[in-house]
Amino acid sequence: MTGRSPDAPLRIALLGLGTVAREVARALTERVNELRLVTGGRELQLVVLGVRDPGRSRGLELPPDLRLTDDLADVAGSPDADVVVELLGGLDPAEGLLRHALESGHGVITANKALLARRGLRLEALARSRELPLRFEAAVGGGIPILGPLASDLAANRWSSVRAILNGTTNYILSAMADQGQPYADVLADAQARGYAEADPAGDVEGRDAADKLAILTRFAFGSWIDVDAIPRAPDGLDGPGRPGISGVTGGDLARAREAGLMIRLLAQASRVDGELRVSVVPTAVATGGGFGRTDGVENRIELRGEPIGRVAFSGPGAGGGATSSAVLGDLIAIARGAGSSWAGLPPAIPARLVADAGRLDGSGPTLRTDTTRYPVLEEQPL
Ligand SMILES: NC(=O)c1ccc[n+]([C@@H]2O[C@H](COP(=O)([O-])OP(=O)(O)OC[C@H]3O[C@@H](n4cnc5c(N)ncnc54)[C@H](OP(=O)(O)O)[C@@H]3O)[C@@H](O)[C@H]2O)c1
Questions:
Q1: What separation in Å is there between the alpha carbon of 19 and the centre of ligand 1?
Q2: 111 CB less than 6 Å from ligand 1?
Q3: 0.85 exceeded by the pTM?
Q4: What is the pLDDT of residues 146-161, one digit of tens each?
């Protein structure tokens, strides 16, 4: 990223051409002049694309002079590019490619929450040591802007809790089960047929995807990269831990909750109590008329409590190629304008003492009410 005029085009290397990358590539080829208006005149120029099979048609018209290759390392280290956008997903080869990009002097943008949740600490250290931007707004909440506001407009706040619905697939399944009275397995099969759930839905329904996003939110709200695998995803039962995520939620659970004016949601929570971080991703009963109860289908919602702001909430489309491309393009525009990493001026991450429990019974979190539901109940004022 060094030695180029600030007015020269920002040359982009793109890794992957799947759901999100296709929408990014489409905008970069079809909206060149429009995007130039918001970068202060700088062109966002797609120069090289790394894909598994360059010969395969993707239902997208790409510029004839665009270089396509299956050599992803060559793309990540390309001397023709200023910034590398990784939209492959997964830990490997994504991490190696991002490290190679940073070591080659490139800024990096990614939507890869699984990678950031597990390797965020060392990727942040590398980007800081190289003084290169590493941005990942799309990794949490899809199209919802949350990391940028936490690192900038809201940076004066001292956060006490983060509560969020972070996975659209599980929220869709719980909404459909409650509305249609269908069992979990039938709704999951329907969600897979409609493309809302993946063929292997375990990462979503067992809460791992929401835990990954919670780990990233925790870094921004509380300053620490935590061990994502230590986040509990199985609700406490009277006879031991239940099944992870929403995989043990039954139609009977939803019906009993509804009678009490409650909905079950997969709630990701992190709170700071006496200097300790308490985290969890478990099914939680929320008021039907509250912010989380009204978050239906594939929407996401993120609420934070802190001083001096009080309570603040963000909601919107948490997934989908178009919505997620909005966040990736926002990161490209930020880099074209000369902005740094997603953490902006926040200090480097510090170690945290993690208590693997979101404070279910600590007075600041939900309380357990076994008379109406076997899940914790979130006592909240509607926002
Ligand atoms: N989809 C969403 O709504 C969403 C929302 C937020 C964040 N994200 C994140 O965005 C990233 C991309 O997600 P997506 O939904 O766009 O995924 P996707 O549709 O599965 O696309 C992934 C792309 O990467 C390519 N790819 C993967 N591994 C590769 C390898 N080893 N070598 C070459 N090509 C490889 C795939 O190529 P082939 O087509 O040849 O397999 C495909 O083009 C992920 O990190 C995801 O977590 C997605």
A1: 7
A2: yes
A3: yes
A4: 999 999 999 999 999 9
